UniProtKB/TrEMBL annotation:
The family this protein is said to belong to: Belongs to the UPF0235 family.
Top-level lineage group: Bacteria
Protein name, per record: UPF0235 protein EDC91_11811
Gene Ontology CC, one term: cytoplasm
Any one Pfam family match given in the protein's UniProt record, by short name: DUF167
Organism field: Shewanella fodinae
Amino acid sequence: MPAIVQEQQDLLLNLYIQPKASRDQWVGMHGDELKVAITAPPIDGKANAYLEKWLAKAFKVPKKQVTIIKGELGRHKQVRISAPRELPEFIQQLL
């Protein structure tokens, strides 16, 4: 499956998460996934909550429009962004 799949108005992102990074950023491709570095630690769901908030800000949508579909407890995640208002430059280059 590709790293980014467009389903009508939604985007499905296949992500590889690097928690406890020095800064939040799109790192690049990691195999067939997008690698994302976030500063939040992977403790008690803090990294997932932080990732949802960070993605919502990046795509200019409310947090409720960002859903982790697969991978709640792992580094490999599939995330749905419902009707993104804006695409980050890194994502635009990959589409």
